[in-house]
């Protein structure tokens, strides 16, 4: 199959590596890609957020399946343009992608579908924010309504900090003040063709920058899968109470959700609650879910894109454990220092059970590998136990050279405890 993967992060690199690992050989292209992706497949100069440009390229090059990685092309309507031209695409249309693009839209869908979630109040002014904060009480949860690259959510006991965060995002639109939910967070990906959903393996990510859940929120500093502490029947409960009701509600509104439904969940003392939805694979969870996938990824993506998911069995996963540690640039997530050389990758990749997904890398004038953004690399360790997978990942991290690099030392450590 000729497949075009849109995106330039570690998530897209993980998707491409999963496709390349299949017994069936595919012709894979990426746009715009990064230095690591370019070492594995051809990358093309194409604006992934331009619906017409992507659709025209797909037709001209005979692309059989387009896989949309990041949220921006979804919100831009790239999937709509492709479907209109008859091209199979894994990713929801703009209307359904509002499940991620608008927190208010997601809350309405959940309310009408009867999906369990926390209470929330929309606020358009600082006065409304203050009233909502006082109504819910501390800890305060403030969320930007639209896309914010993982930086729109603040959870704090500091009322002044909550107000300042709200004031910043009110300049871009409304904000949501939400009920604080206490418990373990879980990410569960479900593949959907608009009617049927099939689950992937649960994962847990680490959003705070520093070891011990300190520092600011980030796009994610690491993840692990599976989650041995989840109660039996967890995935089936999420399918019946969250995923299917959501997909059916969207279908009833003539906005079928075709693609990856990312359920950000929390296991509270009162049961499972939805924190948020995303409309695409999560990063860095994808980096630990896909290496454990036994079922060919291409078959899942193509069946979802073509409305034939009901013909497939539930995906199978290896018993192996996967742990990923994200290496970020100095001063991430504020104003990351870029352009610094990266060394030691060959030695790191030689550690047994380790592979590296590139997130923000580029080549310099002399071909040297440089950091080009905040989260630079995802170092993935796979092993038969958590101890083995963690040890492999951190051994490889120690071999990588990047001045000012930041990473957490406690990814998946609590599972060992």
UniProtKB/TrEMBL annotation:
This is Phosphoribosylamine--glycine ligase. Residues 107-306 form the ATP-grasp domain. HAMAP family: GARS. It catalyses: 5-phospho-beta-D-ribosylamine + glycine + ATP = N(1)-(5-phospho-beta-D-ribosyl)glycinamide + ADP + phosphate + H(+). Its cofactor is Mg(2+); Mn(2+). It comes from the Bacteria. GO terms for molecular function: ATP binding; metal ion binding; phosphoribosylamine-glycine ligase activity. One of its GO terms (biological process) is purine nucleobase biosynthetic process. Belongs to the GARS family. PROSITE patterns: ATP_GRASP, GARS. Keywords: ATP-binding, Ligase, Nucleotide-binding, Purine biosynthesis. The lineage of its organism: Bacteria, Bacillati, Actinomycetota, Actinomycetes, Micrococcales. Its EC number is 6.3.4.13. Pathway: Purine metabolism; IMP biosynthesis via de novo pathway; N(1)-(5-phospho-D-ribosyl)glycinamide from 5-phospho-alpha-D-ribose 1-diphosphate: step 2/2. It comes from Compostimonas suwonensis. Transmembrane segments: none annotated.
């Amino acid at each position: 199959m000729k497949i075009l993967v849109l995106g330039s992060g570690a998530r897209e690199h993980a998707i491409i590596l999963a496709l390349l690992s299949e017994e069936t050989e595919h012709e894979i292209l990426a746009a715009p890609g990064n230095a690591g992706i370019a070492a594995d497949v051809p990358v093309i100069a194409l604006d992934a957020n331009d619906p017409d440009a992507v659709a025209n390229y797909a037709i001209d090059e005979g692309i059989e399946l387009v896989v949309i990685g990041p949220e921006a092309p979804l919100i831009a309507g790239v999937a709509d343009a492709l479907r209109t031209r008859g091209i199979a695409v894994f990713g929801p249309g703009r209307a359904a992608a509002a499940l991620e693009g608008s927190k208010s839209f997601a809350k309405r869908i959940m309310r009408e579908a009867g999906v369990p979630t926390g209470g929330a109040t929309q606020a358009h002014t600082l006065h409304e924010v203050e009233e909502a904060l006082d109504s819910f009480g501390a800890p305060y949860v403030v969320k930007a309504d639209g896309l914010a690259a993982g930086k729109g959510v603040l959870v704090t006991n500091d009322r002044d900090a909550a107000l300042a965060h709200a004031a910043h995002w009110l300049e871009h639109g409304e904000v949501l003040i939400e009920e604080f939910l206490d418990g373990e967070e879980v990410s569960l990906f479900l593949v959907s063709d608009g009617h049927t959903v099939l689950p992937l393996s649960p994962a847990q990510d680490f959003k705070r920058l520093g070891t011990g859940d300190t520092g600011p929120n980030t796009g994610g500093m690491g993840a692990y899968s599976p989650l041995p502490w989840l109660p039996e029947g967890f995935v089936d409960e999420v399918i019946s109470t969250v995923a299917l009701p959501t997909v059916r509600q969207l279908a009833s509104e003539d906005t079928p959700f075709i693609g990856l439904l990312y359920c950000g969940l929390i296991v509270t003392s009162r049961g499972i609650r939805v924190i948020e939805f995303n409309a695409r694979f999560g990063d860095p969870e994808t980096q630990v879910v896909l290496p454990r996938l036994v079922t060919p990824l291409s078959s899942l993506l193509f069946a979802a894109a073509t409305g034939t998911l009901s013909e497939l069995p539930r995906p199978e996963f290896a018993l192996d454990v996967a742990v990923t540690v994200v290496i970020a640039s100095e001063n991430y997530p504020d104003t990351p220092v870029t352009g610094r050389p990266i060394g030691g990758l060959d030695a790191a990749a030689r550690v047994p059970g380790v592979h590296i997904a590139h997130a923000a890398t580029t080549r310099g004038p002399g071909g040297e590998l440089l950091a080009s953004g905040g989260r630079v690399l995802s170092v993935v360790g796979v092993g038969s136990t958590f101890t083995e997978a963690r040890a492999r990942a951190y051994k490889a991290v120690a071999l990588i050279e990047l001045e000012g690099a930041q990473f957490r030392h406690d990814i998946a450590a609590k599972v060992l405890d």
